[in-house]
Design goal:
There is one protein chain. It is built from 8 helices and 10 strands. Helix 1 packs across helix 7 and helix 3 runs antiparallel to helix 4. It is globular and about 45 Å long.
C-alpha cells in the first residue's frame, strides 16, 4: 500500500470519527485536539503504524445485475444530491441539510442557530475538509430534543486519487476503532455491498457528564468515489434509533 493510500484511509476513518458526533454538544475527538488543529491531518500522523505496508491489488470488477433498490419507508423523505451521485432517505421528523460549495457558509450559519458548538467546530476546520461533508440530517421531535441529544446522520464523499478497496477500508477502521470493539459486517443496501460498522464510545457533555454514544457507519465505494454514512444516537435511545439508523444507511442509493 502506498503512502498516499495510507493517507486516504486515515482521512476516511478519522473523518467519520470527527463527524458522527455532529449534533452533540461537543465531539469526543474534536475536543481532544488543540484549537485550530485539522483533525484529519492530526490523525494521519497518529495512525500510520496501524496501516499495512503490503501492496494492494485492485479487485477485478465482474459485471453483475444492479442491486434491488429498497423501498422507502412510508412518509420518509429522499434527498437527491445529483452532483455527488447519491440519494439518501430520512424520517419525516428529521431536518436535513444538503451542503454544496455555494451554500456551505449559509448552511453552517443556519446550523449555528440550533447547534453553535458544531458550527464553530466546522468553521475551525480546513475548507477542503469541510467540503467533503455533503449531507447532514438530525431528529427534531420535541420529545427527543428534550433528552439533550439529537440523533443525527452525515455523509462524507471523497474522490480518491488512487485505487482503494472496501477491504482496505474495513481493516483500517477495525484497527483504529479496536478500543471500542466494533461489530463489522458486510451488508447489501440499495447501492450494493457496504461495510457496516457499529460501536459505542463515551462523550463528555455539559456539566462534565459522560454519556455513551452508539454509532452505525456504512462505507461504500463506486470506482474512486468513496462514501461514508455515519448515524449516531445515545446508547439509551437504541431501541428507537438503532433501527432508524440502519434504515437510513441502507437507503443510500445512486442518483445517476
Amino acid at each position: 500500500m502506498t503512502s498516499q493510500q495510507k493517507n486516504i484511509l486515515t482521512a476516511l476513518v478519522f473523518g467519520n470519527i470527527v463527524l458522527f458526533c455532529c449534533l452533540a454538544p461537543a465531539g469526543y475527538f474534536v475536543v481532544s485536539q488543540p484549537a485550530g488543529t485539522d483533525p484529519v491531518q492530526s490523525a494521519m500522523t497518529t495512525v500510520q503504524a496501524f496501516l499495512p505496508a503490503t501492496p494492494t491489488r485492485r479487485a477485478t470488477l465482474t459485471p453483475t445485475q444492479p442491486p434491488p433498490t429498497l423501498p422507502l419507508e412510508p412518509g420518509w423523505k429522499l434527498a437527491v444530491l445529483s452532483a455527488d451521485k447519491f440519494a439518501i432517505a430520512s424520517p419525516p421528523s428529521w431536518e436535513i441539510k444538503t451542503l454544496t460549495p455555494t451554500n456551505l457558509a449559509a448552511q453552517i450559519d443556519e446550523l449555528a442557530k440550533k447547534n453553535p458548538q458544531l458550527a464553530s467546530s466546522l468553521k475551525g476546520q480546513s475548507a477542503e475538509y469541510v467540503a467533503k461533508i455533503k449531507f447532514i440530517g438530525y431528529e427534531t421531535a420535541t420529545s427527543v430534543v428534550r433528552e439533550g441529544f439529537m440523533p443525527n446522520v452525515n455523509v462524507i464523499h471523497n474522490v480518491e486519487k488512487s485505487d482503494l478497496t472496501l477491504e482496505d477500508w474495513i481493516k483500517a477502521s477495525e484497527k483504529e476503532l479496536a478500543q471500542y470493539k466494533p461489530s463489522i459486517r458486510r451488508v447489501r443496501g440499495s447501492a450494493g455491498e457496504m461495510a457496516e460498522i457499529k460501536f459505542t464510545l463515551p462523550l463528555k457533555i455539559a456539566n462534565n457528564q459522560t454519556v455513551n454514544l452508539a454509532s452505525a457507519q456504512y462505507l461504500i465505494l463506486r470506482g474512486r468515489d468513496s462514501y461514508a454514512i455515519s448515524c449516531v444516537h445515545l446508547d439509551k435511545q437504541a431501541a428507537t434509533f438503532a433501527p432508524i439508523c440502519e434504515k437510513i444507511g441502507l437507503s443510500f442509493r445512486w442518483a445517476n
